[in-house]
Amino acid sequence: MYWSHHLVAQSDTSLLISSLEVFQRKFLFWVEVLSVMGKVNLASSIILRIFTSKTMVRDNIQRLDTFLYDASSFIVSCREVIELSAPHVYLSALPSVHRTSTIAECFWPEFRNIPVLDVQGIQRRQNALLRMQGHTDYVNSVAFSIDGSWIVSGSDDCTIRVWDARTGESMLDPFQGHTGHVNSVAFSGDGTRIVSGSNDRTIRVTGEPLLKQLENHSQLVNSVSFPPDGSQIVSSSADSTGSGINDPRDIFSLDRRDGWIKGPRGELVLWVPAEYRSYLWWPRNTLLIGRSRVIYDLSRFAHGTRWAECYAAA
């Protein structure tokens, strides 16, 4: 799995070329092994790592560039069958590539006992750059993070997924919680939060884990979005209303190194002594098991601009 890391570290162009020529000859066997191991999802990222290596970019090795591009297209367009059956790397995937592909040029002459496609009157569709699979129902909404490195998707299967925009790999377990179809998703400007709107009439602000669930609409939520500064959420609904919802970052976090509970912008809210930090019952905890626990009752806590009200003589 890690040979590509060693390869891209090479600055010797001749060694890189000879290694890639071996890889080109053994490419289908490598794909077969990934299929058997259940690691086909790694193939695109491995190829991309080589394709974008400093030596490849610097020396512009056109012949190998073309091969790597076609290899990635082969993986993406045939991923479904490759993942399902190793023999069908050769029996189904290989016959399906376009005759001008370097994959066809390299391997069709060697694999003569495979089906031959005779296609007339049909323009072969252009291969998708990426194909992402994981949702179990219709996908209603997708959005890029502002830096283009992530893709978020929302589906009728009531889940939200985050993908690597370069490789198409799923980066996190699906976010669950909506009880209706997810109609709209969007990233915050800093890429740390995802807002989603659903048929269940709720808006959820998700980081890791759920930050907030908002219930401002009386009917399904059609669309949600963050403004550039991320200070509000804008939404529209089938109830014919739109709303601007205040800062979803209004949550606290505990820095266990220095013991400070901090607000959404790093403001110092409360300090927890070192001996208490490991036993603190945090609002996101569903259960704390052990002989000791620490719970802060903040119902009368005067903080922020009201800090002076902490003094209340009897």
From TrEMBL:
Top-level taxon of the source organism: Eukaryota
PANTHER family: WD REPEAT DOMAIN 5B (PTHR22847:SF637), WD40 REPEAT PROTEIN (PTHR22847)
Name the UniProt record assigns to this protein: WD40 repeat-like protein
InterPro entries, per the entry: WD40/YVTN_repeat-like_dom_sf, WD40_repeat_CS, WD40_repeat_dom_sf, WD40_rpt
SUPFAM superfamilies to which the protein is assigned, alphabetical: WD40 repeat-like
Chain positions of WD repeats: 132-173, 175-205, 214-241
Keywords tagged on the record: Repeat, WD repeat
One cellular-component annotation, GO: nucleus
Range of residues in the leader sequence: none
